[in-house]
Structures are given as C-alpha cells and as structure tokens.
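Practice problem 4.
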C-alpha cells in the first residue's frame, strides 16, 4: 500500500527519541511475520523499519465517510526498559503465563495513516487480518522447540477444563448443539417463507397473463403460433387460488375434484382424451406451486367425478395403471387409429409402443395399455421376433 504515514502518540513527529524525524509518504507491506514500512525516497533508507506481527496486542481500523484519511490504530507491546518493540519471545512468555506481573512490557500505540488511493484501506485491512489469523510466527517457533518442550506444550493442551468435564460438560455440549440446530432451522424457515411469497406472486402474474392472452384470442381471428405456444404454457403454469384442506374443510375433496376437472380440460384435449394419473400428479402439483396434493387425495378426488356430474372418470387398466379419461374418449376410436397405423398404403406393418406413443401423442405407459387392450379385443395380434414386440392387424378373423 502506498502513501502511508506513521504516527507515534503523543508526539506529532517521529519516534520519542527523534521527534523531528517524519515518517511520511512510505510504502507498507504485510508479510507472514512482519509489517514493513519503506520510505518512498531511497536516499532515506535509514528510516526503513519493520514491526513483528507477534508484538501486536490488538488493532482497530477507522474508515468513516466523515474522515478524510483512513487510519489503523495498533496496540503494540513495548519493553519499558529499552523503549523498543517487544520480541516474539517476550510476547510468547506473556501468553504462556497469562500475566504481565513478571514482565516489563507495556502497551504502546502506533497509527497508520493511509493517504493513498480510495481502496488502500480495504486492501491493507484484508491482508493484515489474514496474516494475523494465520500466525505463521507461532508455527516457526513450534519447529524450533525441543522434543521435551513439545511434549510439555501438548500435555497442557490436552488438559480438560472443569467446565467441559463430567455430566455437566456433556449437558452443556448438548445444549450448544441444540441451540445451533434451532438457529439453522429458523434460517431455513425464513428462506422458505420468502420462497412461498415469491411463488404466490408468480402464480398471480401467470394468471393475469393467461387472461390477457385469452382476451386477445377472442378479439383476433388470426393468432400467431408464438402466442398459441405461450398460451398453452401459461394454461398449465399456475393455479391462482388452489384448494387446500384449511380453506375447504370437509368439502376439500369435492372442491379439489372440481378444480382438477377444470385444470384437465386442455391437457386431455391435447392427449386425445386420456392421461396417466402419474403424469396428472406431476403437472397438477406443478401448477399448484407450494400447495401440493398427496397421491391419496388425488385419487379420492378423481373417484368423485361421476357423483358431482363431471364428464371424466378414473380408469384402472388390467395392469393396474390408473388414468383419467374424458367422456369424449372412446376405446373403439383408439382401435381404429391403431388399425390405421398398422395399414400403410395397403401394406401390413408392425407397430411398437414407441410408434403408438408418437402417433397418438400419448405417454408410453398409455400406449402400452392401448396395444394390450386392442390385443385382448382381438383387434391386433402380437409378433415377438428379432425386432422385438410388434403388433399387427388381426388377419385371422
């Protein structure tokens, strides 16, 4: 960092022994062990100085909008007998005994005035705090210890305090873990609440867009393909006011059945009057957003279609697959489509599950059920060969 002044309190100038000297306009560098101050003028190299990071007792930075020059105040251990900065060994002795009664060290103050670019304070503060947190000087001192000294230090570090021992220590540890878990849960629910609010806003927005597109379609006879694609997407994007157990009470399943029927009008037309229940479960819950419906509630609501006059029904195929069909759906119409697919310009061809799924635009699970139904009613017959399972028009009748 450039353009840094050193200020020694209570003197206006330099060191107490040389007040007239000014330590101004220097460059500060932070290393793993030292804080260096180098004068910008090479002719005054005698003013170059450094401060061991181990001798820094504490620090405080002031970078206020109302202060023109940011400053960093360093509390430094000083030897009262010599007036010099304490060495790392002297500071280590204070940390080991946790007292200053047997030492001649006192705390002094050194101020760094950062008069350089606007980002000087942030750059210095980041690197300075990183060097202090790593404490590389302690690692170097650890390497220089003898085997006996390392053993004594490890022995002291392994000693367990009374606050962490016994049943009381276990209870206290459990309480701390519970407090951390509660805090994590609180933060998670705060994020979930915000997500729910945003989801409601998006569903409301999609409903407004859908209504606007429907109004535009009624007014205009020539709707572009892009508008139609957006409209189909928005029709299944969201339900503005999904039915819930808390709002509907005992009428929950009846109201859910009505809402499900209204929602399935467009998807059923697109899929030729039938949809697998697993697909309905996915698209319906996606449209409901955060108010999800369980599979059991969905089945119970679908079973109520005939009793409340809805022209849809829940159908169970022989394999156990469940699907919802509209009243316009006809098995005979499906059989005719399958027969036409096996007759290509007077030539008999075999069709598989994938062919039926693509031809009728239905899920694979329903395509398989349709082929098995047609076989059961002697409309088609199967052929298992090198190309797999294929179905042909029944020419034996």
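Answer key:
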């Amino acid at each position: 960092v450039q353009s840094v002044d050193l200020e020694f309190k209570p003197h206006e100038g330099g060191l107490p022994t040389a007040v007239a000297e000014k330590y101004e306009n220097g460059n500060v560098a932070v290393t793993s062990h030292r804080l260096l101050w180098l004068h910008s003028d090479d002719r005054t190299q005698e003013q170059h100085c450094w401060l061991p990071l181990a001798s820094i007792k504490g620090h405080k930075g002031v970078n206020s909008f109302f202060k023109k020059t940011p400053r960093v105040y360093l509390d430094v251990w000083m030897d009262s007998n010599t007036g010099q900065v304490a060495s790392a060994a002297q500071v280590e002795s204070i940390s080991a005994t946790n007292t200053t009664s047997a030492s001649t060290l006192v705390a002094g103050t050194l101020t760094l005035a950062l008069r350089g670019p606007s980002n000087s304070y942030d750059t210095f503060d980041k690197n300075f705090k990183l060097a202090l947190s790593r404490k590389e000087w302690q690692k170097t001192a650890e390497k220089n210890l003898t085997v006996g000294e390392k053993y004594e230090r490890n022995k002291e570090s392994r000693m367990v305090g009374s606050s962490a021992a016994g049943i009381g220590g276990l209870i206290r540890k459990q309480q701390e873990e519970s407090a951390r878990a509660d805090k994590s849960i609180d933060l998670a629910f705060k994020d979930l609440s915000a997500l729910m609010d945003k989801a409601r806003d998006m569903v409301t927005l999609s409903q407004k867009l859908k209504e606007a597109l429907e109004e535009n379609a009624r007014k205009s006879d020539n709707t572009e393909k892009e508008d139609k694609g957006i409209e189909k997407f928005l029709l299944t994007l969201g339900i503005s006011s999904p039915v819930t157990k808390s709002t509907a009470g005992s009428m929950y399943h009846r109201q859910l059945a009505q809402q499900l029927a209204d929602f399935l009008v467009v998807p059923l037309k697109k899929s030729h009057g039938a949809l697998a229940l697993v697909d309905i479960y996915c698209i319906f819950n996606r449209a409901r957003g955060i108010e999800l419906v369980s599979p059991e509630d969905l089945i119970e609501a679908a079973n109520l279609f005939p009793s409340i006059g809805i022209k849809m029904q829940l159908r169970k195929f022989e394999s156990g697959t469940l699907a919802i069909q509209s009243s316009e759906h006809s098995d005979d119409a499906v059989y005719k489509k399958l027969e036409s697919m096996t007759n290509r310009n007077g030539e008999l061809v075999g069709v598989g599950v994938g062919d039926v799924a693509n031809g009728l635009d239905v899920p694979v699970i329903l395509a398989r059920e349709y082929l098995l139904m047609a076989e059961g009613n002697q409309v088609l017959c199967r052929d298992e060969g090198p190309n797999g399972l294929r179905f042909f028009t029944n020419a034996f009748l």
